[in-house]
Specification:
By secondary structure, this protein is an alpha/beta fold. It has helices spanning 14-22, 38-51, 119-125, 142-151, 161-171, 195-213; strands at residues 2-7, 28-33, 56-65, 74-82, 86-89, 92-95, 114-115, 129-134, 156-158, 174-184. Helix content is 31%, strand content 27%. The protein has a five-stranded mixed β-barrel with strand order 3-9-8-4-10. Strands 5-6 form a two-stranded antiparallel ribbon.
C-alpha cells in the first residue's frame, strides 16, 4: 500500500524520517510537511492527493492537553471537533451548527464531529482513542478553556487534525492521527512543557505502527461502523 506520513513541521517526525531512510518494508511510505494550521494542511493534502493518491494518510504531531495527561503520552484521535469555527456571542460560543449555517449531520460531519470510521486501523495502533479540538488560535484564556472542556469534551487540542479528518473523509481515504502530549492547554509557560519526551514517544509509536502495518494488507483499510 502507499502510505503518506504527514506532519505540520519536520522536527515532529524527524526520527521516523531517519528510520525510513534506512529501513525498507513492503509498503511505500512518503512524507509530507504540510505547514502549521488547517489552511496550510488542507492545501498541502489536496495537492499531494491530486499528484499521487495514497491508500493511507498518517498525521502525527504534539498537542496540548485539556485533561492533565502525562507528558509524552501518545493518543490516537478518533474524533475531531472544529472548536473555534463560529462566533462568541452573549458570553458563549456558538458553532456553525448552532447558527444553522451548517447541518451537523451532513457528511463528512456526524453529530457535528469528524469521526474516523477506520476502526481496524484505530485498534492496530494499540493507543487510547480520544476526541480532539482543532483550533486556529491556540487556547490560553481560562474562560475559553472551560468552554472547550465543558462543551467539546476534547482531550487534546491541535491546529491540523480537523483538516486531515475533513479531507480524508471527503476523499474516502483511510487515515490515522497520532498526538503526543507536550503540555497542558493554558498559559504558554514553556518551562512546564516537555517537548523532548513528547517527540521521543511520538516517534517510537509511529515506528511501531509502521512496523505493524508491514504485516497488514489492504483489508486493514476498510471502514467499519461503530458496532464492529
Amino acid at each position: 500500500m502507499d502510505i503518506l506520513l504527514a506532519a505540520a513541521t519536520s522536527f515532529e517526525i524527524q526520527p521516523t524520517i531517519d528510520f525510513l531512510r534506512v529501513t525498507a518494508g513492503p509498503h511505500h511510505v512518503s512524507t509530507l510537511i504540510t505547514g502549521v494550521g488547517s489552511i496550510a494542511t488542507t492545501w498541502s493534502l489536496m495537492r499531494q492527493i491530486g499528484r499521487h493518491r495514497p491508500d493511507l494518510v498518517i498525521q502525527a504531531g504534539i498537542a496540548g492537553c485539556f485533561t492533565g495527561r502525562p507528558r509524552g503520552e501518545v493518543l490516537v484521535v478518533e474524533e475531531e471537533v472544529l472548536a473555534d469555527l463560529g462566533v462568541w456571542e452573549d458570553h458563549r460560543f456558538k458553532t456553525l451548527f448552532d447558527l444553522r449555517l451548517a447541518d451537523k449531520d451532513t457528511p463528512p460531519f456526524s453529530a457535528g464531529r469528524l469521526i474516523n470510521p477506520y476502526r481496524k486501523l484505530l485498534r492496530l495502533t494499540a493507543l487510547e482513542p480520544v476526541r480532539s479540538a482543532t483550533v486556529n488560535e491556540i487556547t490560553t484564556d481560562p474562560g475559553r478553556i472551560r468552554w472547550h472542556q465543558q462543551n467539546t469534551a476534547a482531550v487534546v487540542e491541535g491546529m491540523e487534525g480537523g483538516a486531515l479528518h475533513y479531507v480524508c473523509l471527503q476523499e474516502k481515504i483511510a487515515f490515522l492521527q497520532l498526538r503526543s502530549v507536550s503540555n497542558d492547554v493554558g498559559v504558554r509557560d514553556k518551562t512546564k512543557w516537555d517537548i523532548r519526551s513528547a517527540l521521543s514517544r511520538l516517534n517510537e509509536e509511529l515506528i511501531r505502527l509502521l512496523e505493524r502495518l508491514n504485516k497488514q494488507d489492504h483489508s486493514i483499510l476498510e471502514p467499519t461502523n461503530q458496532s464492529q
